[in-house]
Design goal:
45% of the residues lie in helices and 9% in strands. The protein has 471 residues and is of the alpha/beta class. The strands form four sheets. Strands 8-9-11-10 form a four-stranded mixed beta sheet, with helices on both faces. Strands 4-3-5 form a three-stranded antiparallel beta sheet. α3 crosses α4, α14 (359-374) crosses α17 and α16 packs across α17. It starts with 11 loop residues before the first helix and ends with a helix.
Amino acid sequence: MSTAQYGGLSFKEAIAFFRAKLNVPSERWTDIWKEQHNVAFMVAGATKTELLADLRQAVDAAIAQGKSLNWFKSEFKNIVKKNGWDHTGDAAWRARVIYDTNMRQAYNAGRWQQLQQFEFWRYVHGDSRYPRPAHQAKHNLVLPKTAAFWQVWFPQNGWGCKCKVVGETAQSVKRKGYSVSPEPGIAMREWVDRKTGEVHQVPKGIDPGFDYAPGHIKPADAVKAQIDSKPALAERLQPRLVPTAFSTVPGVNVHRLNDKLQELADTSAGPQVQQLSAFIEKHSIKTLFLKQAEMNPKAIAPLKIAADVASYIGRIPGIPQLQAYTINQYLIADGFTASVFNHVVIKAGADQLLSNVVMNEVRRAVDLAIALKQSGKPGFTLSDLIKRHVTHGQDGALFTNWLHELGHLVHFKAGTPMHKSAEWLTTYATQNFKEWHAEHFVMWLLNRKSLAQWNPEIAVYFDQLMEKGLN
């Protein structure tokens, strides 16, 4: 039987695991992916060699000498001050994450080595404050140590996960009343890195990047070479009509946005979509999909994403950072932008799904807007008509709200000309010449053919406006 100690005690396998790691400076935690963490010591944002070395020394002491979290927090503050590190997040929280993750993964790696003497392994759910149902469901799952399951589901299986694995013999399994289970299937889900737009397949129930086995180590030199040879982001991404989008709503991301924009490009709207894509690329236009609370300048929610937003859109000279993505009219505004912005902000509900957008019906909403105007009962906005008359209208309106704000940016980049036509299709377009441009730009992009049949001069006007915005 094993002589390993459980709990917070250090042991030689855990110490050896950590000390074999290579220091790898990196901007983000996901720069080192999955099992690469077995051989790479990194701290997100710690790009200076001296800073990373100091952090490593403190983590090593915590693992090898059993130093407490409070001790590590104190050391963390000293290291930050010494190196002048402007880290993200509260210092106490950041220190806890670094301490907890490295301690647990070193311990788990040591357990992996010690458990090799057992024929069977048993998953034990940790006593977490907020239990994960997927982890609870695997409590007391017994499988042979050779099962492929353990290559994916060996703890730690997410941030703060306290699950563990214990060894069993055939005799102990029988004595304790357990049974060896058939190899379970591992369901996957799509996860999109909201900062880079990269799409990953991640097991359901496991946090992105944690689906590997600490302790199942590949040669360090080979992994280091793999990290160093990682292609540039532009080479890793599939060609997209919209390169990036920042989102705090899972169902509204750059991947789904491109899916829907490609659907639109496959219709007669293809030329307009290609022009829009070229405009976004030329001017490096960014998109923020945020929840309503995150657009409230007086709330705490915007502060929680401030660092991420700043990293994504950069700083705007003369504009306080919060004003770049919050607005006093957050309760009624579906989105906004400004002439000094190279980004648009769009409100998204937590349960919204871009995948629900029925593009053909969204396009036909232009015909509906024309018919209602001709009948003397015009709609308020195109998005409002979509909400009322299109399948999954809330999701369709989210897409057209995005186009509406992009229409403003096209207008601004083209020099903000005044329109010459007195014709209009929605009452919101009569508010001012800027809203006239944004409303009719959406209709031009979605369904230029119908717009031209109603008023050919306006269709040609937007052809020329887009050319000015591009040039």
